[in-house]
């Protein structure tokens, strides 16, 4: 009887669908989530376009560094000019630091003059869990075929000092330039830095 139960459990384990995880060189996890304007956004809707995912927490000083210096907005605008879709993701759970509802997100975008294509409200953290997002910011670059090509920090200096930005290697900008030139991404991963993503229970 014990053997039959063990075999049944094993069969169920192998039959269970495996959740996609973010792996460089593999298809990026798809998602469906509402943005600040109430529109449903999915990764699959942008097949044929390069996509950047940026995890955001307006109250995080590391995020404040890049927005205060307009580094993030500059990269968002440059990406848009090249046909890249930049999606900013807020995965802070309700009641947690940095959580925004749609109205709050719209106000934040206006305040910082954000240039993202859409600001995603991921209050249940489903998108964050699919990408195993750790920090704000945490960055992902997905190519036109939906394949993950970069994940990690926005740049190479983990600090809250905006004076470090010009001295740092801008990993996302570099990855986008290499993809546009038909080259492999020279630094496909780096250690993300910032505030922890404020997951719900």
In short:
30% of the residues lie in helices and 17% in strands. The protein is of the alpha/beta class. The radius of gyration is 18 Å and the shape is globular.
Question: What does this entry look like structurally?
Answer:
By secondary structure, the chain is α/β, with parallel strands linked by helices. Helix content is 30%, strand content 17%. The chain has helices at residues 2-15, 61-68, 71-81, 102-112, 126-131, 171-180; strands spanning 32-34, 40-42, 51-55, 85-90, 118-121, 135-136, 139-142, 148-152, 195-196. Strands 5-4-3-7-8 form a 5-stranded mixed sheet. Strands 1-2 form a two-stranded antiparallel ribbon. Strands 6-9 form a two-stranded antiparallel sheet. Strand 4, helix 4 (102-112) and strand 5 form a beta-alpha-beta unit. Mean pLDDT is 91; it is low at 1-19.
Features:
alpha/beta, Glutaredoxin, two-stranded antiparallel ribbon, 9 strands, disordered N terminus
